Amino acid sequence: MIEVRDIRKTFFAGTANEVRALRGVSLDIPEGCFVAVIGTNGSGKSTLLNAIAGTFAPDAGEVRIDGRDITRWSESRRARLIGRVFQNPFAGTAAGMTVAENLAIAMRRGQPRGLGIALSRRVRDEMIERVRTLKMGLETRLDNPIGTLSGGQRQALTLLMATWLKPRLLLLDEHTAALDPKSAAQVAELTRQIIRRDKLTALMVTHSMQQAVELPDVIVMMHGGQIVRQVAGAERERVRVPDLLAAFDHVRRREQLDEGVAGVLRAQYR
Amino acid sequence: MTLVMGAFTIGLILSLLTIGVWLAFRVLRFTDITVDGSLTLGAAVAAVLLVRGAPPWAATLAGAAAGGVAGFTTGMLHTRFKIQELLSGILVMTALYSVNLRVMGRSNVSLLSTKSIADPANRLLTAWAGGDSLLLFGWRVPVSEAAMLLTVLAVMAAIGLLLRVFLVTHFGTALRAAGDNAQMIRAQGVDNRHMQVFGLCCANALVGLAGALLAQYQGFADVQMGIGMIVWGLASVIIGEALVSRVTPGLALAGAVMGTILFRLLIAIALRWGLNPNDLKLVTALFVFAALVLPGQAKAWCARARRLADNRKGRGAP
């Protein structure tokens, strides 16, 4: 159970560039639920994900995982509970190290790392076993530097690394956005499989409406640093891409109207 | 032969420095110039303890530990107080100049009448050879030099083996990843800043150890002895990388050792041919410059030459 309570964040506060990125966002993600967050550019969807991941400290509000308040935890400490896949396919793996070494690091995510040898024969067998489930033929390339693989292959491995030890929460930050269409579809399908198989609780930020209607249990729509709508249950089954686009249009129009009304009022009471 | 042996001994001692520089520059990707100060610090601490009559191994270890403290300080300045890498190193290096003078009490300390870490090997070899010189590959060499070479070889082998194993442990793998991709290792639950501090501590401990051994080899510690060491270390790292192409931790370590020895041999030969010792640092700096710039330039030149050739061929065709 993930609880996000009234998270607020303003970047560059008090300057001309002030950005109110999150204006009181609250969200509950029940155990085993897969949530997708969609929104326009600058809607705060990635900021919300980063707040949960611990990239920055929020100005107010709190984040709880299984009742534990992790708001003040560092990014690296949260890794014990959270697995992450980044938008940049190169961000989740150490390019100069081999596939096997990268996986060995992920096998101890958030756990103490002692002076035992990282790559034993038994560990390698387990790696081959699990890398084979990706169906990319990477099990024969365990000793290649991971930097020699393609973006799609690296992203698939990052996904495998983030879920090697079952995380309490899986965070996916537009993780297919930087891939070519074929790899993107492959990684999206892999994501669906892994989340279903391990019954993971997951939060995915995406710009792809198609993904948003196909993959998750709940769709969260954000705009202007706030959650404007949640689509779940039977409605979630019915919803199609045009419905989502219409909903965003509606939000935008209402906002314009508000702006206009506010302008009229300001003019009258000056 | 003495020349070659000298180059080998210094090469082995300085390969500890090279490994330290490799650890900071290549593994952590941290431009650490504390090295110039921590080498002297290691030498100074060891020398003063030796003069006071401490056992040589303890004095040498203390030198290494002092280097480690210097590295720790640089690491903390960077991670805790957010000072740029380069500036953190410069601050510590500058401060160490005064610290080193304080430690030694004057600008150099002679070690000619003190015990040395090579003494056990010296006794062993003297008993074995039955005199103060012995035959090595048909050359007559002083026992004292052979003893130093043997000792340094043993220390180097032990450290090299230890590091080789350490770098493939869970902890060592995480350390390497922290230098490769900080974002990735944070997402895997390791604070990359802690790794940086720890790595700099190790790197400078190795440099301090090199300083302590170097002082005992040359028979004195001098406040100036660290100047330019970072460039020497870097030159050796680059030569080592040219010698071993594919970089696993073990090969990289071996490359660092071979690179340093080759570099020392080249210097010994250059000095023999009449290179002015005063020009040594200029030549080294030029070498590092060339090694950094030439590979890229060569590629550009080759591409240009190929283009010109293609153009000419194109015009020649009917």
Q: Short description, anyone?
A:
The complex is a heterodimer of chains A (270) and B (318). Chain A has helices at residues 45-53, 75-78, 99-106, 121-132, 151-163, 181-198, 209-214, 233-238, 241-268; strands at residues 2-11, 19-29, 34-39, 60-65, 68-69, 82-85, 169-173, 202-205, 218-223, 226-231.
Q: Architecture of the largest domain in chain B in CATH?
A: Orthogonal Bundle
Low-confidence stretches of chain B: none
Quaternary class? heterodimer
> Which of globular, elongated, flat, extended, rod-shaped describes the shape of chain B?
globular
Q: What characterizes the major β-sheet of chain A? A: 6 strands, mixed
| CATH topology name of the largest domain in chain B | ABC transporter involved in vitamin B12 uptake, BtuC
Q: Which SSEs are present, and which pair or pack?
A:
The complex is a heterodimer of chains A (270) and B (318).
Chain A: E1 2-11, E2 19-29, E3 34-39, H1 45-53, E4 60-65, E5 68-69, H2 75-78, E6 82-85, H3 99-106, H4 121-132, H5 151-163, E7 169-173, H6 181-198, E8 202-205, H7 209-214, E9 218-223, E10 226-231, H8 233-238, H9 241-268
Parallel strand pairs in A: 3-8, 3-9, 6-7, 7-8
Antiparallel strand pairs in A: 1-2, 1-4, 4-5, 9-10
Chain B: H1 2-27, H2 35-51, H3 56-79, H4 85-104, E1 108-110, H5 119-129, E2 133-136, E3 139-142, H6 143-167, H7 170-180, H8 182-187, H9 192-218, E4 220-222, H10 229-243, H11 249-272, H12 280-316
Antiparallel strand pairs in B: 1-4, 2-3
Helix pairs in contact in B: 1-6, 1-9, 1-10, 1-11, 2-3, 2-4, 2-9, 3-4, 3-9, 5-6, 6-11, 7-9, 10-11, 10-12
